[in-house]
Design brief:
Helix content is 29%, strand content 24%. By secondary structure, the chain is α+β, with helices and mostly antiparallel strands. The chain contains five helices and nine strands, in the order H-H-E-E-E-E-E-E-H-E-E-E-H-H. The N terminus and C terminus are likely disordered. Helix 1 packs across helix 4 and helix 4 crosses helix 5.
């Protein structure tokens, strides 16, 4: 038997979802099979949310050393990537430190970044962009990083990885509790062939709307960047030359 009613945040979500789905009564202890099923359904749901990027609430700071002559940095859950960490669904800001000095390059869209004609210069980056791929996040900086004592810091929303049964997850804020419980309850009811109450869908939608509002952040704003004007090599506005 798994007593999840008051143990941990993740356990509480699973226990309450079973009660909302009408499978258990208040204060009823889940069986081990129910707890395992709830955890399986919860992790599947979180994986789907992470792929869509709609409800990613894992906000974090990630620091990693800059590499010499570095243009592209891949972030993913494998040592084959430049940075072995949960990939980002959204990145809000990027800074880099050289000693005690912090530099803040400007964000530009991937399309504008790709329009930079020559990307061979290594210096302090002036612009950056990112792309969300299936298994990793691609961060790109120009001019290329020089390495040495440079440290890159990014702030954003990482994909939430799988959770464990008796885990107090600091990555999941309390404001997401209701949305998680009701969304998981819908999956539990379907799995257990249970009947949801008549007003369930309206409550679920209200909690999901609240979660979406808390996660709303439009970072795809095309702002002027430091390299919009052509250099002395002369390629004209609309392209980049260095």
């Amino acid at each position: 038997m798994a007593d999840l009613n008051s143990s941990t945040f993740i356990g509480e979500i699973i226990a309450q979802s079973y009660r909302l789905a009408g499978v258990t009564r208040e204060n009823e202890v889940l069986t081990g099979a129910q707890a395992a099923t709830g955890l399986f359904l919860l992790n599947n749901m979180l994986a789907e949310w992470g792929e869509s990027g709609t409800y990613c609430f894992f906000i974090s700071n990630l620091e990693f050393p800059a590499k010499g002559n570095g243009l592209d940095y891949t972030i993913g859950n494998s040592s084959s990537f430049d940075v072995n960490a949960n990939p980002f669904a959204q990145i809000y800001s990027l800074t880099y430190n050289v000693g005690n000095i912090t530099y803040t390059p400007e964000y530009i869209t991937p399309k504008r970044f790709n329009s930079i004609v020559f990307k061979s210069i290594s210096n302090f980056p002036g612009v950056w962009t990112y792309e969300v791929q299936k298994d990793y996040t691609l961060v790109r900086l120009y001019p290329r990083t020089q390495g040495g004592n440079q440290v890159i810091k990014i702030v954003g929303k990482q994909r939430l990885g799988s959770v464990t049964l008796f885990q107090n997850s600091e990555n999941v804020p309390r404001y997401a509790f209701n949305a998680l419980c009701y969304s998981l309850a819908e999956l539990v009811a379907d799995f257990e062939a249970s009947q949801l109450p008549g007003n369930f869908e309206s409550k679920l939608q209200r909690h999901m709307n609240a979660l979406a509002g808390a996660n709303k952040f439009d970072f795809e704003i095309d702002v002027p960047d430091a390299f919009e004007e052509s250099s002395s090599l002369g390629r004209g506005r609309g392209g980049y030359a260095f």
